[in-house]
């Protein structure tokens, strides 16, 4: 994919600015960044002594955990749908 097809979006996550380059729309990138910021602030409010690196890792662990749960749910639903169709 050429650079011309990529968008550059500046976002703020936990008080730091990042430039995200990718093929997603700027609104999508801002939504993702907002959700990451929200999760970091939520975890930080429960664990105020965490440094930013540990906070980022815990945020990533939470995000991957949520992803795996949703992936499992999707696979189960696809299995049910296949059984209903057959």
Automatic annotation (TrEMBL):
Single biological process term from Gene Ontology: cell division
Keywords per UniProt: Cell cycle, Cell division, Cytoplasm, Septation
SUPFAM superfamilies, per the entry: Cell division protein ZapA-like
Gene3D superfamilies noted in UniProt: 6.10.250.790
A UniProt-annotated Pfam family: ZapA
Subcellular localization: Cytoplasm
Predominant cellular place of this UniProt entry's protein: cytoplasm
Domain of life assignment: Bacteria
Subunit structure: Homodimer. Interacts with FtsZ.
Function: Activator of cell division through the inhibition of FtsZ GTPase activity, therefore promoting FtsZ assembly into bundles of protofilaments necessary for the formation of the division Z ring. It is recruited early at mid-cell but it is not essential for cell division.
Name of the featured protein: Cell division protein ZapA
Source organism (scientific name): Anoxybacillus andreesenii
